[in-house]
Design goal:
- The structure holds two protein chains of two kinds.
- Chain A is mostly beta strands.
- Chain A contains no helices and five strands.
- Chain A has a two-stranded antiparallel ribbon with strand order 1-2. A two-stranded antiparallel ribbon of chain A has the order 3-5.
- Chain A starts with a strand and ends with a strand.
- The mean pLDDT of chain A is about 80.
- By secondary structure, chain B is α+β, with helices and mostly antiparallel strands.
- In chain B, strand 3 and strand 4 form a beta hairpin.
- Classes of the chains: A mainly beta, B alpha+beta.
Chain lengths: ~45, ~375
């Protein structure tokens, strides 16, 4: 079984820069094992 | 169970014959005579398991050396599509829900835990209190086994599992299944998803100021708008905007299979896609295109403090049904009445409209059931 999460989170995109400098950051990477309740990501003002 | 009962009976018979002083070497009553077919089956299963382990090891080695998995449709994948996977799944569900004798329960559950690396110390109840394998599979955990991240600016994992993909959705609104093959988010969540509407509405405000002719097209997707008016999109991208992120988590058979709320949110809508029930393991992701879009799934959509949020629980052959705690009447993995696959998902808007069901971070939302 699989769970897919899709969500909006604070992000900042600059016109001159192709890559978005997002304010939301994932705390995990591909291949990581994670347990329920652990942070997937955090955001800052 | 049949095998164990038979073994138990033959052992009893053997004991009786030994006590009775019987020394006959006849096959009748011999405690060590296991039928040849059973031995052959055990050997075959062992060989298949060993082969699978070898294949998994090769995949891990390939990934560690930086080789990306690519889609490789094969004969087995085609063969899978011809199998009655729903019937197999339902049969497995009824087998796994068979009540086990109390003496057998700890052995059966320990065997499952050993095979799939489950942590038995976390189980909320003693093993003999799980009447069937199905009950054990959906076990709750001891209090405090899964502390919830207390940071109010964090989004937590709704499940135990392995992170398959994470990232930000860009222009295509696609999620990569494997290298070179992606599936569309709107296909996963449903064509009537709030996703494009909510993403487009912010943009549409800017668009409507500059181009009145776009005002009436309220259901345009982000993708269409980006194609139709790239200049407008550039101007809107110069200011802070909310991004769309995604995370795909795979649950192995030994993992805790309850789904919790990742944030405080309002669930506004539920959508049920009665699709196929392909396996969703790593091999299947490489060999079956649109795997997540094809499979039976339940999608919850709603709003949280930062905007849109959706969670899709995707079933598989062995774990085919999804039980929603916020809607216990929902039945999934039902026998198919029509020969043709129904494309339209079944939808329910939660009351009161606009507010729906409020869930707190860490609340139990759903559970994956066997079969």
């Amino acid at each position: 079984s699989t769970v897919v999460l899709v969500f909006q989170a604070p992000a900042l995109k600059k016109q001159e820069d192709e890559a978005s400098s997002s304010e939301f950051k994932f705390c995990v990477e591909r291949g990581d094992k994670i347990r329920m309740g652990e942070a997937l990501g955090r955001w800052h003002d | 169970l049949f095998f164990l009962r038979k073994l138990h009976t033959t052992t009893k018979q053997a004991g009786a014959s030994i006590n009775g002083g019987g020394s006959s070497s006849d096959s009748k009553g011999n405690p060590f005579l296991v039928p040849g077919a059973t031995v052959a089956t055990i050997l075959m299963l062992g060989a298949l398991h060993a082969r699978r382990m070898y294949s998994d090891k090769k995949i891990v080695e390939a990934r560690e050396s930086g080789i990306e998995l690519e889609i490789q449709p094969d004969v087995k994948a085609k063969f899978l599509s011809m199998l009655p996977l729903r019937s197999i799944s339902r049969f497995w569900g009824s087998v796994s829900s068979t009540e086990l004798p109390v003496w057998l329960r700890p052995y059966a559950h320990r065997a499952w835990a050993r095979a799939f690396h489950s942590n038995l110390e976390e189980a909320a109840l003693p093993l003999d209190q799980y009447a069937s394998l199905k009950d054990f599979f959906v076990r709750t955990l001891k209090e405090g086994s899964r502390p919830i991240d207390s940071d109010p600016r964090s989004l937590i994992s709704p499940v135990d599992g392995t992170v398959i993909r994470v990232g930000e959705l860009k222009e295509g609104v696609l999620i990569e299944q494997v290298k070179g093959f992606s599936y569309s988010v709107s296909s996963l969540l449903g064509a009537g998803s709030f996703l494009p509407l909510m993403a487009a509405s912010d943009i549409q405000e800017d668009i409507s100021c500059q181009e009145n002719n776009l005002r009436d097209e309220s259901r345009k997707s982000w993708w269409r708008i980006s194609l139709a008016s790239p200049k407008l999109r550039e101007s809107s991208s110069s200011r802070p905007m909310k991004g769309l992120f995604y995370c795909v988590i795979y649950l192995r058979p030994g993992d805790y299979h309850r789904i919790h709320s990742p944030v405080d949110w309002n669930v506004l809508l539920r959508r049920h896609f009665s699709g196929r029930l392909y396996p969703v393991n790593e091999r299947a992701t490489r060999t079956i295109k649109n795997l997540y879009v094809e499979n039976e799934r339940v999608v919850l959509e709603g709003r949280w403090q930062e905007g849109y949020i959706a969670m899709a629980a995707i079933g598989a052959t062995n774990i085919g049904s999804i039980e929603l705690f916020i809607e216990p009447a929902l039945k999934t993995n039902q026998p198919r009445k029509k020969l043709l696959q129904s494309e339209a998902p079944e939808e329910r808007v939660y009351e009161p409209e606009g507010t729906g069901v409020m869930l707190k971070k860490g609340d139990e939302v759903a559970v994956f059931n066997m079969g």
